[in-house]
Amino acid sequence: MRILEMDCPTEEALIRKKLRGMTEVSEMQFNLMQRVLTVVHRPDGLQAVIKALATIGFTPQLDEEAVAISRAPAQVKNSWWPLAIAGCAALGAEAADLLGASVWVVAGLALVAVACSGAGTYKKGWVAIKNLNLNINALMSIAVTGALALGQWPEAAMVMVLFTISELIEAKSLDRARNAIEGLMRLAPETATVKQADGSWLDVEAARVGLGAIVRVRPGERIALDGAVIEGRSTVNQAPITGESMPVDKGPGDNVFAGTINESGSFEFQVTVAANNSTLARIIHAVEEAQGAKAPTQRFVDQFAKVYTPIVFLIALVVAIIPPLLFAGAWFSWVYKALVLLVIACPCALVISTPVSIVSGLATAARKGILVKGGTFLEQGRKLRWLALDKTGTITHGKPVQVAFELHATDFESMFVRSVAASLSSRSDHPVSNAITQAADADSVARLSVDEFEAIPGRGIAGRVNSHQYSLGNHRLVEELGHGSPELEARLESYERDGKTVVMLADNKRVLGLFVVADTVKESSREAISELHALGVRTAMLTGDNAHTAAAIAREVGIDRAEGDQLPEDKLRVVESLSRDRAMVGMVGDGINDAPALARADIGFAMGAMGTDTAIETADIALMDDDLRKIPVFIRLSKATHTILVQNITLALGIKAIFLALTIGGLGTMWMAVFADVGASLLVVANGLRLLRK
Fold first, then answer.
1. Beta bridge partners of 670
2. What pLDDT does 653 receive?
3. Any bridge partners for residue 521, and if so which?
4. 217-254 pLDDT, tens per residue?
5. Could you tell me if 573 and 585 are in contact, meaning their C-beta atoms sit under 8 angstroms apart?
6. Is the Cβ–Cβ distance between 583 and 561 less than 8 Å?
7. Rounded to the nearest 5°, which phi and psi values hold at 410?
8. Crossing angle of helices 296-327/630-664, nearest 10°?
9. Which of 47, 113, 428, 536 has the maximal Cβ count within 10 Å?
């Protein structure tokens, strides 16, 4: 349920206290940034929950279609005219007091100001006091009432007006953090142009478009749903999902995603996923769930705040009672100091300092194509000391290419040897065969007719070309044919040391040519490894390839440690060994073969998660494309988030401590206390929002 009045830990504490003892309720989850409360309750207990919330002043809105993908901004509409009247009345009371007007005039203006600006505060404060909850509304209500009782009319009025203004400004500031997530929701258009049964096109609400529907996208339009292109070609800007601004070519068979932008041509695609389950919708849902999960710092701050407020309240009681009773102090002076302390007792700035920073960090990460599954991982990222990486598709492109050809039988023509090899490889769908075929096609090598083609499992392929038998295969196949030689073995060993795979073409007598195939390293991988080292993170590559290949790739990229011939259980053991000295270990993989190691690592990164349900749902952090450079970006964001968290907590506690000392020393006023509370709250919110600009 969405509760528009709930946007501060003050309200969360009140709701928790009210619902905790209800037999109908078994679990509660709060997302203050989205003003969403999730309650697990008995089937017949919903009305009891709603009534309980009503008794403490909350009006929940039920949303059966899942609040997580709601487009409606969760903002409270406030009327400004009562506050304007209150402000004028408070200024009038101040002026009248300075000019020596009748106390009745001053009191009348002050009461008008308090009534117009403080009705909501008093209502919430009374509910809190009834429920024995010392929140800011209760403390402010007591403080202002006490000031009125002491005859401090202008000060009571101005304090209430300033407090109300500060609450509005704080709410607006927090809305900026909320809007960062709501901005994701608005990426996908609300309607799509759908083909009808009679061949016409009609704009239909995206949520109502069924699976299998044909959607047309014109140049410049945002794509409304996930699907596969069936007609037309274009380039699509996938930056809203991946954070990568380079447009991607799309043609028949290629997947497109909701929220991305069609840049050039027009095309049609078939819808493959419902609107509420699109990649974008799952990202939004994951980010909102991450908001609701409290980070360690936030849990610590919340626990501290629970102790802080009662302690300061008790100090205020002692200040109000003990000096006048035991030391003949002036009641007026010491009660006034106690009222100032009540305002200082509010922990709002402290408790709000953490969530606004975490949410801003999560939103910034999502905008960069990094889906972080909770504040815990955002905080832990800065502590990473080891990063284990799968090779294929992570460090390399994952697609073998032919990088060299070497003629071994010098009495044959190179083009003929390549032509025979391409003729055989074109009949196979093995990735290495595809690499040889593609290289031949790129050089316009002719194909020849193949008879009696056969695949030889674990070795290669064979067939007759121009009535001669040829074999195309690996080292084992050549040895079985009896075509090995010391010279050939030396060449093969040389290539293998460099991490390359060699496929040989042979006839019945000898090897004719060597086709050197390799999985090429991404340029972005070199940059990423260099950045990781600069951040103090050491790297280990884990691959199922042989040790020679592993070492060669590691040397090329600059990786610290390479482990070859790794099965899933071997990768798990390596990750465990890296963790032995209590170092924080991350693991980057595809989420399937690397599942045990990903689960064991402190932080599991899934690469290329766009359109992959499993990666988005199971990884701690999902990188929406396969660019390894996003991990250094994440670590830097984690460091920045931690810095701002420390700054915010220091600011909140430091300002409170200064004004606490000033008040006990007789220098503090209620005005100063309100400015301290308001100023601290606004400072920590503004500081936390700086993460949105990272």
1. none
2. 87
3. 396
4. 999 899 999 999 999 999 998 877 776 656 888 999 99
5. no
6. no
7. -70, -15
8. 0
9. 113
Please compute the mean of the pLDDT values over residues 355-366 and round it to a whole number: 86
DSSP state of 240: H
Residue 390 annotated as catalytic: yes
- Alpha carbon distance 418, 397 (integer Å): 25
Of 397, 243, 324, 343, nearest in space to 679 by CA: 343
Give CA angle at 86 (84, 89), nearest 5°: 110
- Class level of CATH domain 398-520: alpha beta
DSSP for 466-504 reads TTEEEEEE-HHHHHHHT---HHHHHHHHHHHHTT-EEEE
Q: Which residues contact 341 (CB under 8 A, 6 or more apart)?
A: 312, 315, 316, 319, 660, 663, 664, 673
In this structure, the chain runs to a length of 694
Ordered by start, the domain boundaries in the chain are 9-63, 191-277, 370-395+522-624, 398-520
CB 348 within 8 A of CB 10: yes
CATH topology of domain 9-63: Alpha-Beta Plaits (3.30.70)
For 501-522, the pLDDT digits (tens) are: 899 999 988 999 999 998 888 8
Among residues 607, 636, 639, the alpha carbon closest in space to that of 623 is found at 607
Q: How does pLDDT run across 179-193, given as a tens digit for each residue?
A: 666 666 677 888 999
pLDDT tens digit sequence for 372-403: 888 889 999 999 999 999 887 788 887 889 99
Other beta carbons within 10 Å of 635: 21
- pLDDT given at position 613: 59
Reported as a single tens digit per residue, the pLDDT across 249-261 is 899 999 999 989 9
pTM of the model: 0.75
Hey, what amino acid is at 255?
N
Q: Is 561 exposed, middle or buried (0-12, 13-18, 19+ CB in 10 A)?
A: middle
Write the DSSP symbol of residue 626. S
In CATH, what is the architecture of 191-277?
Answer: Distorted Sandwich (2.70)
User: Which range among 220-224, 368-372, 470-474, 542-546 shows the weakest confidence by mean pLDDT?
Assistant: 542-546
Q: What is the pLDDT of the chain when averaged over all its residues?
A: 85
- Residue 19's pLDDT band (boundaries 50, 70, 90)? very high
Half-sphere exposure of 446 (CA within 13 A, CB side): 6
Residues 503, 411 contacting (CB under 8 angstroms) = no
Query: Tokens for 426?
Result: 């074109």
Report how far residue 435's alpha carbon sits from residue 109's, in angstroms, rounded to the nearest whole number. Answer: 86
> Largest alpha-carbon pair distance within the chain?
120
Instruction: Give all strands (DSSP E) within 336-379, no chain letters.
Output: 370-372
Per-residue pLDDT tens for 149-162?
A: 888 888 888 888 88
Q: Return the amino acid letter for 469.
A: Q
Q: Which pLDDT does position 180 carry in this prediction?
A: 62
Q: Two tokens at 668?
A: 């503090």
CATH of segment(s) 370-395+522-624: 3.40.50.1000
Q: Which of 7, 97, 390, 590 does the annotation list as catalytic?
A: 390
Burial (CB count <10 Å: 0-12, 13-18, 19+), residue 336: buried
CB 685 within 8 A of CB 169: no
d(CA 30, CA 60): 13
Report d(CA 92, CA 293) in Å as an integer.
47
DSSP letters spanning 213-235: -EEEE-TTPBP-S-EEEEE--EE
